[in-house]
Design goal:
α7 packs across α8. The radius of gyration is 18 Å and the shape is globular. The chain has one domain: TIM Barrel, CATH 3.20.20. The chain has nine helices and nine strands. The relative contact order is 0.13. An eight-stranded mixed barrel has the order 1-2-3-4-5-6-7-8. 43% of the residues lie in helices and 22% in strands.
C-alpha cells in the first residue's frame, strides 16, 4: 500500500469514528492536597479502537478534519461535564491554522462557563504565543500550562508569568525520587509560582507515596491513577 493510500485510509477511519459517534470522554479529577476534595476535572478524549495520540496524529495531517474533530469533541465534552466543577480542556493551537475558523473557535469557548484552557508548553510554537495569550486575556479565559518541566521541554518563564495554573509533568515525581537535590529546586520553583499567584497541579500521582510527596512540596492539586475510582467516563450512545 502506498503512503498516500495509507494516509487516505487513516483519514477515512477518523471520519468513521466521528460520524458513528465512536468517541467518548473521561473526566480526570483534580484532588486538593489539603482536603482530598475534588476541585475540578480534566476532559480527556477517548476513542473506540484507537489511542488519542493516534487519532490526533492523523488529524494533524488535514487542517479541516482536525477542526471538525475538535469542534465535535469539545462540544461533547462540555455537554457531558460534571456541572458543579471547573473543567480543564486541552487546546491545540493548530486548530487556529484555518484562519477563516478562528472566530468560530473563540465564539464557542465564549459561550461556555467555568473552564480553564490547557496549553501544552511546546504547543505554543505553532502560533504567535504572545498574541494568543493576549486574546485569552481579552476574552477573560483562564489557562494552564500543561507538561511543565517535562523531559526535554523548555522552561518558559513567559508562559509561567501569563498562566493562572501550572501543571507539573509526571516526570517530576521520578526525578524527585531519584535525586533528593532536585527537591530543593522543585520547592523553590513551587514557591516562585505561588509568589506569582499561580496554582500548581502535579500530574501522574499513582500511589499514596506520590500524594504525600505532593503535600510535602506544597502543591495545590494532584491528578493521576491513584484517583481513578473517581473518574466519570461516558461513551456517546
Amino acid at each position: 500500500m502506498s503512503k498516500f493510500n495509507l494516509q487516505d485510509n487513516q483519514i477515512k477511519k477518523i471520519h468513521h469514528l466521528i460520524s458513528s459517534s465512536a468517541y467518548g470522554v473521561e473526566y480526570q479529577p483534580f484532588v486538593c492536597t489539603k482536603t482530598s476534595h475534588i476541585l475540578a476535572y480534566e476532559a480527556l478524549a477517548r476513542f473506540e479502537g484507537m489511542s488519542p495520540d493516534q487519532f490526533f496524529g492523523i488529524c494533524h495531517k488535514d487542517a479541516e478534519l482536525f477542526f471538525h474533530a475538535e469542534r465535535v469533541l469539545k462540544k461533547f465534552q462540555f455537554e457531558k461535564r460534571p456541572k458543579s466543577k471547573k473543567l480543564f480542556v486541552n487546546f491545540d493551537p493548530h486548530v487556529l491554522h484555518k484562519k477563516e475558523r478562528v472566530n468560530e473557535v473563540f465564539d464557542f469557548f465564549s459561550n461556555q462557563e467555568n473552564f480553564v484552557i490547557e496549553l501544552v508548553e511546546n504547543s505554543v510554537e505553532a502560533v504567535n504565543a504572545p498574541k494568543l495569550l493576549d486574546v485569552f486575556k481579552n476574552l477573560k479565559y483562564d489557562f494552564a500550562v500543561d507538561d511543565f518541566l517535562k523531559e526535554n521541554s523548555m522552561l518558559s518563564l513567559f508562559l509561567l508569568s501569563q498562566c493562572q495554573y501550572l501543571k507539573l509533568d509526571k516526570d517530576v515525581i521520578s526525578h524527585a525520587k531519584a535525586d533528593k537535590n532536585f527537591l530543593h529546586i522543585l520547592r523553590g520553583f513551587i514557591a516562585y509560582a505561588h509568589g506569582m499567584g499561580k496554582r500548581v497541579v502535579l500530574e501522574g500521582v499513582e500511589t499514596t507515596e506520590d500524594f504525600e510527596l505532593a503535600k510535602s512540596l506544597g502543591i495545590d492539586c494532584v491528578q493521576g491513577f491513584l484517583f481513578r475510582s473517581e473518574f466519570i467516563k461516558k461513551m456517546r450512545a
